[in-house]
Amino acid sequence: MTPRKTLQERTKELQVRLTNPAGRKELQELESRYYAASDRPKPLRTSVITYILVHERERGLITG
To answer: What does pTM read for this prediction?
Structure first.
């Protein structure tokens, strides 16, 4: 079992991925997987990072 990350750790990790095209593609794929799992689309004015954090927090994958 992987240790849970704090909200700040996970936010920083996701922000770093935005800095390059491959990382942005990873975030889009993660958004798609989370949408498929929850059937809740990302609201228009919500960043992909916020969408991912909300999903992971609801499932107990991150703390804080």
So the answer is: 0.89
Model confidence at 2, in pLDDT bands (50, 70, 90)? low
Burial of 57 (0-12, 13-18, 19+ CB in 10 A): middle
State how far the Cα of 5 lies from the Cα of 7, in Å rounded to an integer. Answer: 7
Q: First CA to last CA across the chain, in angstroms?
A: 19
Residue by residue, DSSP assigns 13-29 as HHHHHTTSHHHHHHHHH
pLDDT tens column, 23-45: 999 999 999 999 999 989 899 99
